[in-house]
Amino acid sequence: MNTPTTTSFPRALPRIAVLATGGTIAGSAADSAQTAGYQAGVVGVDKLLAAVPGLANVARIDAEQIASIDSKDMPLVLWATLAERVNALLASDDVDGVVITHGTDTLEETAYLLHLTVKHAKPVVLTAAMRPSSALSADGPLNLLGAVTVAASPAACGQGVLVAFNNRIHSARDIVKTSTYAVDAFQSPEIGALGWVQDGRVEFQRGVVRPHTSSTPFSIGSVAAEWPVVEIVASYAGVARVMVDALVAAGVRGIVVAGTGNGSIHATLQSALADAVKKGIAVVRSSRVGSGHVMRNGAASDDALGFVSAGTLNPYKARVLLMLALASGKSSAAELQPIFDQY
């Protein structure tokens, strides 16, 4: 980790820690017209901040370069590093909030992990960009300004981990990436954004209902040393059971299935997953559909087979919650279902 650099602003302004991890927001290409062929994570946090001179009117900034990666390559050890650093910063009376610059590919997973393991009410806001910093009309600077503005707002306290992107404010639990190229790539399907940020104004139009941060039993310390291995399989026409059997043989602790529709599973795959449950492996049904929820089937299927419903969590967030739940000692369907119902 690099030594933090501090920009001096008037004492009346809140102090926000900006943690940079790389991603497209820190990407660069030789051609300014290029928005796809670029190298992610090569621009340092100081240059990111220098591209947003308006920050000086919003907050005093402490900047740290935590990593310089393409978020598609996000390792679990970096998740632990981020969570531990965020918790340490927020424990200080000198820090009013944290902003994390991140790649878009796995932002929703990182945000949800922090939503469950950060133990403070102070704002934590993630942001990113769909265009590299070198591009014409790069969206990173405005997104970064918006994120710092949200983190500096008293209204963001107690809302859990947030994502500020394209002038909208989203809950970490709700947000998903919905486009491969558009600057409004992040949405909260079904539920909608929490509010918006524009020209220095922050407005929340609804609050977060489910427990988060200090209201959860999850701790990053319980998984930092050894993450329970949880993988994802998909159900589709003609699927074989080879993937499930291979994962069972490899010793996974849990499997999330991206089912069709309402989490329905091809009969061949369902048989393999039922066999996995008999061997002590946790199985969670999610859906490959972009929105909606997976209803628990009760006695008709889930109870009989020992499956857990992911509710409104997509497969990737369901994996995050399952890893944390397994690390906390919960492994049976009877123990896991209330966790998925609550968080």
TrEMBL record:
Q: Can the keyword Hydrolase be found in this entry's annotation?
A: yes
Alphabetical list of SMART domains matching this protein: Asparaginase
User: From its record, what is one biological process in GO terms?
Assistant: asparagine metabolic process
**Domain L-asparaginase N-terminal: start-end pairs:** 15-207
Question: What Pfam families has UniProt attached to this entry?
Answer: Asparaginase, Asparaginase_C
Q: What is the lineage of its organism?
A: Bacteria, Pseudomonadati, Pseudomonadota, Betaproteobacteria, Burkholderiales
What the record says about family reads: Belongs to the asparaginase 1 family.
UniProt keyword Hydrolase, yes or no:
yes
Q: Which PROSITE patterns match?
A: ASN_GLN_ASE_1, ASN_GLN_ASE_2, ASN_GLN_ASE_3
- Under what name is this protein listed? Asparaginase
Q: GO molecular function, one example?
A: asparaginase activity
Q: Which CDD domains match?
A: L-asparaginase_II
**Entries under NCBIfam families matching the protein:** asnASE_II (TIGR00520)
Q: Which InterPro entries match?
A: AsnASE_II (IPR004550), Asp/glu_Ase-like_sf (IPR036152), Asparaginase/glutaminase-like (IPR006034), Asparaginase/glutaminase_AS1 (IPR020827), Asparaginase/glutaminase_AS2 (IPR027475), Asparaginase_C (IPR040919), L-asparaginase_C (IPR027473), L-asparaginase_N (IPR027474)
Q: Which UniProt keywords apply?
A: Hydrolase
| Active site per the UniProt annotation | 24 (o-isoaspartyl threonine intermediate), 24, 104
- Domain Asparaginase/glutaminase C-terminal: residue ranges: 230-340
Residues the entry annotates as binding substrate: 71, 104-105
